[in-house]
Amino acid sequence: MASIDIAGITKNFGNIEVLHGIDLDIEDGEFIVLVGPSGCGKSTLLRMIAGLEEVSSGDITIAGRRVNDLAPRDRDIAMVFQSYALYPHMNVAGNMSYSLRLRRTAKDRIAQAVSGAAGKLGLEPLLDRRPKALSGGQRQRVAMGRAIVRQPKAFLFDEPLSNLDARLREQMRAEIKRLHAELGATSIYVTHDQIEAMTLADRIVAMQGGVVQQVGTPLDLYDRPANLFVAGFIGSPGMNFLPGRYDAAPGPAVILADGARIALPLDPGLAPGAEVTLGIRPEHVALGESGGMEAGVDLIEPTGLGIILHLSLQGVGLKAFTADRGVLNSGPSIRVSLPSAHLHLFDSAGNRVALR
Amino acid sequence: MRNFRLIGTVAHRLALLVYIAVALFPLYWLLKIAVTPDKLLYTEGVRLWPSHITWSHFRFVIENSDFPIFFRNSVIVSGSTAVVVTALSSLSGYALSRFSFRFKFWLVGLMLVTQMFPLVMLVAPIFKLLSPLGLTNSLTGLVIVYTAFNLPFATFLMQSFFDGIPKDLEEAAMIDGASQFTAFREIILPLTLPGIAATLGFVFTAAWSELLFALMLISGNDAATFPVGLLGFVSKFAVDFGQMMAAGVLALIPACIFFLLIQRYLVQGLTAGAVKG
Question: DSSP labels for B249-264?
Answer without folding.
Answer: HHHHHHHHHHHHHHHH
